[in-house]
Design brief:
Helix content: 40-55%
Largest sheet: 5 strands, antiparallel
Distance between the termini: 55 Å
Number of strands: 16
Number of helices: 20
């Protein structure tokens, strides 16, 4: 005990020698407060050490730490948050208790220095020894009103505030990993309130005030130590807890095209280096080898005709640039195959492909030029019947203006999505022409590629469809809304990849003068490789082209509608940006940003009034950007290029690529 008293007394004398003012209640009293500041920084030092250690140990599976790592982190917390502060409190109390008792020299101090503790600096408190060394924490409560209130505040409220700040520091040090070791910091610190009940009240009050100041400073210091990167955590997790994958046969990869996933040519390779196929690749391989579905009999006699609405889990007609298929394919390839038209003259001059379409094997292409209007194929004026070009396989649902079907295109040699209007009237035909012309001018990995535009009557395989038919790419995937409903919300990495990818597609569309106007979780599809695609530009229109919109008719989904669009004002690129941020917010929280409306009218009213965003995700690194992107005033929102830049920079800092897949995140849930 004497050794502890001597150590603390030496610290106090050293602090006093730094020039502590001899103002009321005295230089020794202020030295005790300064010692309290240093005591409050002890948990901060422990939290910093934990932060540095976690950059090496990361976190694994289960509890996140091995037994040795857990004992180490917990031991640091108990030492920095409990044992060392307790020693300071007990030692300081003993110093002034002995000085009050009149000992010639306190251990660690000579006689003249000990005598200076017994000097009265001001009449308000008397001698410093009696002020700091008489009574105890337990005795201070129950005296006169002033003493009791002071004791409750300085020995009750102030310590509790310090405990909360220590808990914040510990949880900050353990971010991006299990936070259960934080209790070994704040629980011992909380126990100090009880364990120091015998310490003289004056000494304890000055120490706790200093501890609170030190804890406030620690809250600012701990975040300066960066957490372990997500890449490092994943690397350590994989190295400790993930068993080696089971052997499987390689997945053939087409060599004639490019892929967003970055796989190089060959079989089962990535960048030319042999690798085990991923889960997504194995599933895609199994999907590609299933039997093709039987053609649909539009007369209604086939038992395989699909329902008129979109079924849960059904594929979607997607808008994105995907790996091109080999040049030659057997007739009737499996559903889900995506490809581009082969080079060379069209097989049917009456139904030629869209001018300006990307050649086979094209990957990312330069920004679009001026919009080009697609050619319209008309039926042959006469002659013998031709073999059907299209073989309808199943109905995918209704989107935009009309029904969407999965079909095999004999001319292109792969599976496509064909979309038609429900009624062949001039207004609907003009809207489809506009949609095809606008989308045909776009070039972006997340924008649809239009293959053809023709009359339904021009091909026997389209019997039963009306008006114009758009032939477009087909993406087999699940909507973001379905994935969140079935497998839970996404993490920040996945949300950033979805956001930046779709934002790039929208920015390309906006530069072509096209607005989407119905961005929602149901219109963002994740393909089997984990890449997001923005689908269904069915209500897209050129900026300024409002002649075909009925007065008072609002296009869009109320829960994801921007305030200005809901209020009947002209839509703008900022409106699309708001809706995209709302869809990302749903992916992170599981709810629309304004909450789910009871009906469409209520949702429209809430959107038009700019209702408060009550359902934003609580814990996400993107909360600030979400709030900026969903401001009520369109001119205050960041443009899509700014959003992309911020997200790409954030992903780079975390050690991730912006174009990586998001499927793996869903699969772990």
């Amino acid at each position: 005990m004497d050794a502890l008293v001597a150590l603390v007394a030496g610290l106090l004398d050293g602090i006093r020698g730094l020039g502590v003012p001899d103002a009321c209640p005295g230089d020794w009293a202020w030295s005790v407060t300064a010692l309290g500041v240093l005591t409050g920084l002890l948990p901060t030092a422990g939290a910093v050490v934990v932060s540095l250690l976690r950059r090496r140990i990361g976190s694994g599976s289960g509890s996140g730490y091995g037994m040795a790592e857990g004992v180490l982190l917990g031991g640091i917390g108990v030492l920095a948050g409990g044992l060392l502060p307790l020693a300071v409190f007990v030692g300081a109390g003993a110093v002034f208790a002995q000085a009050t008792q009149g000992v010639p020299a306190v251990p660690g101090l000579d006689a003249p220095t000990t005598e200076s503790i017994r000097v009265a600096t001001c009449d308000l408190v008397g001698t410093q020894s009696s002020y700091l060394g008489r009574g105890s924490v337990a005795d201070s409560i129950g005296g006169d009103i002033v003493t009791s209130v002071t004791a409750v505040v300085l020995l009750g409220v102030v310590p509790l505030l310090a405990v909360m700040l220590v808990a914040v520091q510990a949880r900050t040090a353990l971010r991006r990993g299990p936070r259960w070791p934080a209790k070994f910091f704040w629980l011992p610190f909380f126990a100090l309130i009880l364990l120091t009940a015998t310490v003289p009240a004056g000494t304890a009050e000055h120490l706790w005030v200093g501890v609170l100041v030190g804890s406030l400073a620690g809250v600012l210091v701990v975040p300066m130590v960066p957490p372990p990167s997500r890449a490092r955590i994943e690397q350590l997790r994989a190295g400790r807890s993930v068993p080696p994958p089971p052997p499987s046969r390689p997945v053939p990869v087409a060599t004639g095209g490019s892929s967003r996933s970055g796989r190089g040519p060959g079989t089962g390779t990535r960048g030319g280096v042999s690798a085990t196929p991923s889960v997504a690749e194995r599933l895609a391989d199994r999907f590609a080898q299933r039997e093709p579905e039987r053609p649909v009999d539009l007369s209604g006699r086939s038992a395989h005709a699909g329902p008129p609405s979109v079924q849960r889990g059904a594929p979607y007609a997607g808008f994105g640039s995907l790996p091109a298929p080999p040049a030659a394919r057997p007739p009737g390839p499996p559903p889900g195959a995506v490809g581009r038209p082969p080079a060379g003259p069209p097989a049917h001059p009456a139904a030629g492909p869209l001018r300006g379409a990307a050649p086979s094997g094209a990957g990312r292409v330069p920004p679009p030029g001026p919009p080009r209007r697609p050619t319209l194929a008309a039926p042959a004026p006469g002659g013998p019947p031709r073999a059907p070009r299209f073989r309808l396989m199943k109905r995918l649902g209704a989107g935009g203006f009309g029904g969407v079907w999965l079909a095999h295109d004999a001319k292109l040699g792969h599976t496509v999505a064909v979309k038609s209007a429900h009624a062949a009237d001039p207004e609907t035909e003009e809207r489809i022409r506009r949609e095809a012309a606008a989308l045909g001018s776009m070039r972006h990995p997340c924008c649809v590629e239009i293959y053809d535009l023709l009359h339904a009557s021009s091909d026997p395989g389209l019997q039963g469809m009306d008006g114009l038919v758009i032939v477009m790419q087909y993406v087999d995937g699940r909507s973001l809304g379905e994935l969140v409903a079935e497998r839970g919300t996404v993490d920040d990495i996945s949300a950033a990849r979805i956001w930046t990818g779709v934002a790039g597609a929208l920015d390309t569309a906006h530069r072509s003068g096209v607005l989407h106007r119905d961005i929602k979780p149901g219109n963002i599809v994740v393909d089997p490789q984990g890449h997001p695609h923005l689908i269904d530009f069915g209500i897209a229109r050129k900026q300024g082209d409002s002649t075909l919109t009925q007065t008072g008719y609002v296009l869009g989904t109320p829960d994801y509608l921007a305030p200005e669009a809901a209020a009947g004002k002209p839509a703008s690129p900022a409106s699309d940006g708001w809706q995209l941020a709302a869809a990302v917010s749903f992916a992170l929280s599981g709810s629309p940003p304004r909450g789910e409306s009871s009906d469409a009218v209520a949702g429209l009213r809430a959107a038009a009034a700019g209702a408060k965003l009550t359902h934003l995700p609580g814990r996400t690194a993107h909360l600030s950007l979400l709030k900026q992107a969903m401001r009520t005033e369109p001119h205050k929102r960041p443009d899509l290029r700014t959003v992309q830049s911020k997200l790409d920079t954030w992903l780079h800092r975390q050690g991730y690529r912006a174009d990586g897949p998001v499927t793996a995140v869903f699969d772990r849930r």
